[in-house]
Amino acid sequence: MTNKFQRRCSPQTAAAAAAAxxxxxxxxxxxxxxxxxxxxxxxRCCRNFVTFMCTQVGVGALIVxxxxxxAFAFQYIEKEFVDDxxxxxxxxxxxxxxxxxxxxxxxxxIDKPAWVNATNDxxxxxxxxxxxxxxxxxxxxRTPKEIWSFPAALMFCLSVITMIxxxxxxxxxxxxxxxxxxxxxxxxxxxxxxxxNMGRVLARSFKxxxxxxxxxxxxxxxxxxxxxxxxxxxxxxxxxGALTLRKKIIVPSTACxxxxxxxxxxxxxxxxxxxxxxxxxxxxxxMTSLCKIGFGDFVPGASLTTAAEVTAATEKLREEIKFDAKxxxxxxxLAADQHSKLAINFIYMLLGMGLVAMCRNLMREExxxxxxxxxxxxxxxxxxxxxxFVGCCGAGPQDRYDKRRYYE
Length: 408
Hints:
The chain is mainly α. Helix content is 80%, strand content 0%. α4 (56-78) packs antiparallel against α9 (174-217) and α9 (174-217) packs across α15. It is extended and about 105 Å long.
């Protein structure tokens, strides 16, 4: 129809149509002016960036960047805190020593039991006051600059977004507390997204490795069953063998537990070497951290050498008349190694959370398969019981037909 219409149209109509097309093309050209191209390019870049950030690599990189930025932010905020508790402790210590001196001066040569009782009372009062400052004032014997080193701040950020909450160090400024709330509000959903994505990726990879190893070990049995099917084993046996060949391989829970135990033992050796912990304490820390218990009695990064400690030790060595230059070089190399140790500690914790998510996915799949098999077995058992009961109590023609079909 279109060709016929085009043949019948006059030259004037064709010219008018061409003019209309020209106007439409001009309008389309106007609509796609060069001024709109940068906007489209920006939209395309933003779309690609968001798509990349939703992938496994993007989420992992984002959570690392988020933790590092949070560590620098907490360092900047909390180092401005003015802690007066060291001065209070020093004042209490001076008062206690002066009181003990007065007691000794008055009672030492006259009445020994009274001296013992008086000194015990003074020391007991001193202990109560120190415990009150530690509990209420947060006294830890270090300045805020020494507390909020970069390794400690990074582990604090990791404990916030992973919801472990060690509790060994807390923000004490109002700005720090408010920033912690905002940081956790955005960091916890980001960590959950990482947890789910990394669990799927690791579960898929581990399943592929396990199935490959299973196929290698079962290659002989597979060939024998396939040869039996090709040789024409009975119909029922052939169908059963085909189902056995096509049976889905499920990763057992024991394999997941072995992977987790190997990972925990690796962390035990690593933290015991770097943090100077015993093997029991290091194993205890790895278990409580990966299980998200987080008591806070053992936290990595507390024993690492900070920049302030290196500077103080360097000045002390240079003040001595004879200082060993080799010892000074070893101190600086030790401080440089802390950055690599810190990165490995951080990656160990993040990868450990991913392995926990992997085991969760694999065990959930196994539980589903087991429940499905139990349901099928229970159904077969109920059908068999019903048929046996009908056979014992008398069966009608329909029941005999059903029984014959069941056993066929």
